[in-house]
Amino acid sequence: MGWLNAVIQGLLLGGLYALFATGLSLMFGVMRIVNLAHGDLAVVASFLALALVSGTGLPLWIVLVVTVPLFAVLGYLTQRVLLQRSLSSGPLATLLVTFGLSIVLQNVLLEVFSADTRTLDGGSFGTGSFELNGSISIGYLSLATFLLACAALAGIQLFLSRTGLGRMLRASSDDRETANLVGADSRHVYGIATAIAFATVALAGLMFAMRSSFDPATGPSRLIFAFEAVVIGGLGSLWGTLLGGMVLGVTQSLGAQIDPALTLLAGHLVFLAVLAFRPQGLIAGRTA
Amino acid sequence: MTLLSISDLTVHHGQLRAVDGLNLDLEKGEVLAIIGANGAGKSTLLRALAGLNPPTSGSIRLCGRDITRLPAYKRVSEGIALVPEGRRLFHSLTVEENLLTGAYRRRPGPWTVTRVYELFPWMSDRRRQNASQLSGGEQQSVAIGRALLANPDLLLIDELSLGLAPVIVRRIYEVLPGIVGAGTTALIVEQDVSQAMRVADRVHCLLEGRSVLEGRPRDLTAEQVEHAYFGIGQALPAGSAREGHD
Amino acid sequence: MTISQMVTSRAAAALDVSRAARSSKLSAVVMLAAVAVLAALPFAVFSNVTDTLVNLFVLIALASMWNLLAGFGGLVSVGQQAYIGIGAYSVIAFADQGVQPYLAVPLAAVTCVIFAVPTSWLAFRLRGDYFAVGTWVIAEVYRLLVVRIDSVGGGSGKGLAGMSGLDQTLRGALTYWVALALALATIAACYLLLRGRLGLSLMAVRDEETAASSVGIDVRRAKRVVYLVSAAGCGAAGGMITVSSLSVNPDAIFSVQWSAYMIFIVVIGGIGYIEGPLLGAVIFFGLQQLLADYGSWYLVLLGAVGIATALWLPRGLWGLMRDRTGLSLFPVGYFVRGRGA
Amino acid sequence: MTEQALLHLDEITKRFGRVTVAKDLTLSVRPGEALGIVGPNGAGKSSLFAMISGDLRPDSGAVWFQGREVTEVPPHTRTRAGIGRTYQVPRPFEHLTVFENVLVCAHQGAALKGRQAWTHAMEVLERTGLAELANTPAGRLALLQRKRLEVARALGTGPRLLLLDEVAGGLTEPEVLELVEVVKQLHAEGLGIVWIEHVVHALVEAVGRMVCLAGGDVIADGEPMRVLADPKVRELYLGGGPETGLADEEGLTDGEDS
Amino acid sequence: GGLKGTGGSSSDVLKIGYVSPQTGPLAGFATADNFVVKQIQEAMRSGFTAGGKKRTIEIIIKDTQSNPNRATEVTRQLINSDKVDLIVGSSTPDTTNPVADQCEANGIPNVTTIAPWEAWFHGRNGKPGEGFKYTTLFFFGMKEFADCFFPMWERMDVSNKNVAALWPNDTDANAFRQGLGPMMEKAGYSPIDGGAYQNGATDFSAQIAKFKESGAELFTCTPIPPDFQTFWKQAQQQGFKPKLATVAKVMLFPSEAEALGALTDNIATDFWWSPAHPYKSILDGKSAQQLADDFAAETGKQWTQALGSVYSLFEIAIQAFKEAGDPKDRDEVAARLRGMKLSCMSGDLDFTAGPEPGIAIQHPVGGQWRKGEKFPWDVVIVDNTPNKAVPVGGDLRPTNG
Ligand SMILES: Nc1ncnc2c1ncn2[C@@H]1O[C@H](COP(=O)(O)OP(=O)(O)OP(=O)(O)O)[C@@H](O)[C@H]1O
Ligand SMILES: Nc1ncnc2c1ncn2[C@@H]1O[C@H](COP(=O)(O)OP(=O)(O)OP(=O)(O)O)[C@@H](O)[C@H]1O
Ligand SMILES: [Mg+2]
Ligand SMILES: [Mg+2]
Q: Do D100 and C200 touch (CB under 8 A)?
């Protein structure tokens, strides 16, 4: 029974990882922007929501509905103002820009909100659960996160493969100049994609914030999970990211079942094993 | 009527004046071939027309409208499509997706994916293959198909026959009149002079960014062309002595 | 008869290939003088100066190693902290065995090479951004393994043994000299490595891997050499960090922050130039010292400087300087003269 | 057979999914022979080069070079053994100068050192007309110069067998002639040459033997004029019909007919 | 000439360096720092006599950013650049150990607090019976935790003696695993160890499942604050609701209580200082209650336990200067620290009577978080078995009543 519980909780945790990795998958896997500020952006979203809740007294769900589109706009602007310029100077420049952004965000948060640990109070929804049987209970929040992850990833995958804009996005990441040549304003296309990525980051950040806690320094430690989920699944494939998140979640959960000291190690080892024996990821998306 | 009119166009690469005060008019339905030695500025001219290299001075008019400062992606809607030097396919997309990117702006016109498949029959079998895995010539065909799908009024092709087997080159030149007949005007850069002279209504010879010879193929003599090619009055170049000045 | 046998004496006589860029003789003299001054510093100033300089030297060593790896080998790693950590822990372990800690620093480099050999097997299965993420995870794995070893303090870290017998002043000076030697050694290693035939192959591999192998370069070997050298350098730097801080903490020593610093320094200084990390480290260090008292705002500023450099100075400060002056302290390229070209 | 041959491909087969690029293909090149390869786009010509140079492993069959089986040998070792190749789409080392591009070949491929390597590199640059550009970073070269650099690099490795993949495409007529001269001279010096080219008339002038590949198989092999006159070649490669439409080929086929 | 070394200062100003985690995950410990420093400066404005001369003090504050490497670095700066005469430091072994290591190596007198003495002593390879020459600590250890927690457990009506224990793999928690675990067994409890997980975990399903399976109704832990928040929420969600939670290292501060929201109610923890403690300042006679009130008045914030401890660091430092014949003589000042006995804001401290030389022991009492009036959450002292001097303010209640 313990093992079954571990698998189920691992799957649900994997949903959270997958949701968190969605934006990264879009930016890292498809646009090839290594966004080191990904984790910090999620934390920014959490703080923003916290400030909105305590500042306006609005119920959490309204704050949620406001924060996510706000982040989309922020994403569009970030792309146009910061990232676009760095793209032409090669991958290292993007790495440095997003790393710089990560440091700036972390420390501005620290100055504004102090280093205190916070959490978003999801009320009974945040801590409530239903029992599957005596020993397995499933949290509403975890389940909702899981479903959101599936919906977000499926939606974006369809967007990428079925729509002209999605196709242009992949085309732009291959060759921006030529994308312009066939009629797409690659800056706008990238802007839209980053907006989508940011929206999912915000969503994931809020889910994370309700599930556990956050402080200005939380971002980077979570980034590596997102990276692992994306790479295990296969760069460029959003389905892969969903699968990657689950694999990571279940592995960690099973590892913890054996010995809690193995939690992270188990996840990392599976990741390395995938890299060693199936470097293109479980679902091969783009050619490396 | 005049489709494209270029006046006094100058384009720089840094210090280098790659296109120098060029004037050129193009009638609707015409095939104009640009010839010239390596580094004459042919590619630069085409890229400037497509909007990839901003001109330093001069103007470009399409159907009387000034498009000199229009960004590349907007020119596609205006009806300009370029087959760039070096193919430039999107290598993470499949063959079919590459073609479809050409239709991104949804200009109405005769070209559809099906028609391109008719032009290059091998393509429909390989539509799901990754474009990066195609052979050199196959890539060139896809690049041409992609440009056609934009249903352009003005089709710019750089190094049309480069890397294509003779049978394919021939087929393309066979269909070229059809393309032009369907309302498209073509501006092609062709290294193979005799080929260019055969298919073009007019040829234009560039030398160091300037137009040095222009006319209908039948009005031009081989000698004229040769002189224009390497600079009038200049002795026929001997081997490597020329290389450095490219 | 092959082409190589056909080299005419005429061509050979006319050819003049030089390795030095402008002013390198003068700069060599200046650099020697600078080294001499630095070496004499503990006699001239109080240890507050030398002590902070130790940090600078460690940064120079780390950044040079990262530059070698990424700027010349094309291996963009986010996981060099693995070797910093292994190096640091080897010093702790050697000192526990009774080895003098200063002697343990070069031994730490050797240990890192030993670890890097099998690690490279895994890491080299990856390319590009996979490599970057992969190396980061490998470093995490090393951290998680180290915290399970109780004899080196587990998750808590451990103090360095074997330093208590030394006089405090002498210890400060020795630490300074070892750090200086480390920085010089890494720079010299980069220079010698890149000036030789291997250096050219490396740059070729970085630019075009497939073509490199088809012109006769053993790509794997070339990459492995830089990877191992870089591991050794980072390991020695890690050992140096331990020797100067006297203790080690796994989370801090295996922190990805180190990689971030290395990237920051190298990109600001100018990637792909031996001088780049040198300049970058000095600037980074200067900023750190200048702004350290402004709390978190100093980090905000540091981040902003990084962003600005990446956006407006993609070739780094040294790239800018070189474009303006043509100056090169460590010329590794070739320049053909006397061709009447 | 394998003993005298410079290069011998023994029944090699290679498939990419449904695409067959080589089907039990057997082909030999004698020392000092110049062989031209033609064939429709996608026939598998470049893939063949990749299998000779080691970038691609055949599914089955063997590659012999100078009497030694090299099927499992990695590319760099083959280069050192004397196989020099160019790429159809140039792949220069963009951040190195033209001279350094060739020098690294002299170091690694031809195992030369010091001044010897420099002179060799310079010599190659002169032959390929790149001497004036020696100090230019390869990333700044125009397409044609890149193609020349491909040849220069291949020569830089001091090969016994030179593989040229569409090096004449996009060249002007005088330049093609010039290139043909260079190839002829190399041939005269005893180098084995295999040249893939769609500029057929250049090929005809430079090589003594020609094969036409299609569908992963040799459909014609022999004296160039004869191969080009082969009805199968005309149908699959040159294009059907009695009137070829191409001036150079006209001259060529006329010559063949008479 | 020879090597220059650190050099020294020879003025009448006595410099005290203070190292604490003012930013980063541990910043909760340092909320009162600025206030305390101001208080001390105020009290010492007119200076004092030491070694036969009039002396003034100067305090230099350094932030570790919650990073042990940074702690090392700033300590070295204090020693080398600022040339301080004594260094005090506080909060968790991540700060105290690197700071003490540097002081010991450089011969600077040092006193630190808020770290279990075992983690401080054994983590630094201290030789039993001998201790360190320059570095001292006042706080408490596993025995005092046991003395504080066990009586509360005794008072709960539980069906078994299993105690769920959440101990990560870090300096603090390893000290609990090796120290408190055996003590629990001796007292008849069975610790259910959730396992040595890594800090920063996002999922505790495995631990929760294990705790549930064991049927434990008592719970104790030593995690880092963010992890506790995650754990406690997931425990609620997955149905692990112990009757009494007695936690260490977390829930020490009101900010943490606030962050956890409603789930804070009746969590118990150790209190080594509160306004209710009957202690007085040795510097100006101010009582604990007064100090807390001043803090609230000046900053608008609720008191924290670190307030008293940090205050005492300076009391001890100044006392050592006063007692020394030459306050600039580092060896002598260090000797005074090791031999110190005083009654201060942190109660009676005796550095000679500790489990090891140079360690003074405090005796924490049990308190629980309850809904407050002025602030959202308040502490009520519910069990004073270890230290009868502290008045009890309310009844012990079940955490998940
Ligand atoms: N990106 C660039 N930066 C600098 N100079 C360039 C660039 N692109 C082209 N040039 C230079 O501009 C000149 C014109 O180049 P262009 O490519 O237009 O010539 P071309 O006629 O198309 O030649 P080719 O037949 O080789 O394609 C050449 O001298 C070339 O070296
Ligand atoms: N990695 C690959 N995966 C799948 N198919 C491939 C791959 N590489 C090549 N092909 C296919 O193999 C066939 C042969 O390619 P190759 O490049 O050898 O042709 P080629 O004869 O050189 O043609 P061209 O004259 O156009 O250069 C092509 O149809 C190509 O699409
Ligand atoms: Mg061109
Ligand atoms: Mg080919």
A: yes
